[in-house]
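Students often ask why we bother encoding 3D structure as a string. The short answer is that it lets us treat folding as translation between two languages. Here is a chain of 454 residues written in the first language.
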Amino acid sequence: MNIIAVAVLLILLNCRSLCICTAQRLLVNMTVVRNAPAIGAFCLDGSLPAYHLHRGFGVGARNWILQFEGGGWCNDLQSCSERAKTRRGSTRYMNKQEVFSGILSNNASLNPDFYNWNRVKLRYCDGASFGGDAKFDNGTSVLYFRGQKIWEAIILDLLPKGMGQARKALLSGCSAGGLSAFIHCDNFAKILPNASVKCLSDAGFFLDEKDVSLNHTMRSFYANLVTLQGVEKNLNKNCTNFFSNNPKLCIFPQYVLRFITTPFFILNAAYDVYQFNHILVPPSADLLGQWKSCKLNTAECNAKQINILQGFRGDMLVALRFFFKNSSQGGMFINSCFAHCQSESQDTWFAVDSPRIHNKTIAKAVGDWYFNRDVTKQIDCPYPCDATCHNLIPTALDARRFLNYLSESDLGGCEDCQARRHEENKSGIIKPMHGLGMGLWLLLCSLLGLGHFF
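And here it is in the second language, the structure alphabet:
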């Protein structure tokens, strides 16, 4: 009983600190792009596109961050019709205020390099990573596949608001928004020819990988997406010319990356949970549910499944090899976590217990790269050596089972792993919980009326 009481007390202490932080969160109002119809820019349902802008100040007043919102895709009429009735396809259903945290925070102690920049979040309502330009109209229903036009309309709205005089600019995005950063990076640099423009993709390096049933599930999904929404004409021309036999491949970052000339930073978890669930082991490849337990908790993964997960990480590193070796202006932070999107959440971007590689946080890595303070190409040692991860699913309790499947060369890159664990263990800081623990924590806080989280 005493153990339970202590556990509840620790939860309450953590909860109180979280509630204090959430009370100070930055809420930014939505701006609807009223002139969007002039260039045919509409969300899936015909509503007007929108963004959220928080103004910069001081020495950052002429610097800009544009952050693409993420949220998956729709690649057929049924899924797009359903999406059009949600916040992912219509600004009518979106919250009119957005929380700005992580890379969008205005707090110098939480976002030291970009806190005083003009920060913009582009709302996602087209279902094709701001890349399509088509329309479906059968006389009774209409769907607008106008992501490219939405991008152009928002840019036209921001240029006279000061972005046209930008000195520095960073185009970024998370998940499907991270894919948008690959699609629009060079175009953004051309829009701001007098600025120092760079691009960042967070959790947007989606692999052209066979699933566990040896089918190209993601390749087929993207091919249908590109066809339905008219994306091909907006993909990198040098890439589509090179892959002339199958230009749709250029929606995959691993193929287009070498043709992007603007400095680029890739932030990705090597065991990205979205890719784990939808590319490596999509539902269609696991009809018998053999991966169900493993997806929920890596402690339940068998030896073969562990080996497949390590192989997925290996394939990601192979896909990044050319960029790693040949990009003099590029940056990377590939950590061995079961995560997805790490730049928008404060706990993963920059906090006491943020994920680290060689003791460098994501915020520090991105800042060092953008401002040319240091060469930043960080690749983590294989799971489970990184004790700083904020995993979105519970992870293996017995780390030795994973270590059995690592090579000596892999372990050679993890010289500081034991030191990291030692530092973590001797720290007296009460750290926030993740995964199931976080869910229980938030529920308890809510029940006790200690704060508002959503």
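Translate back mentally: The CA atoms of residues 359 and 420 lie 8 Å apart. Keep this in mind for the problem set.
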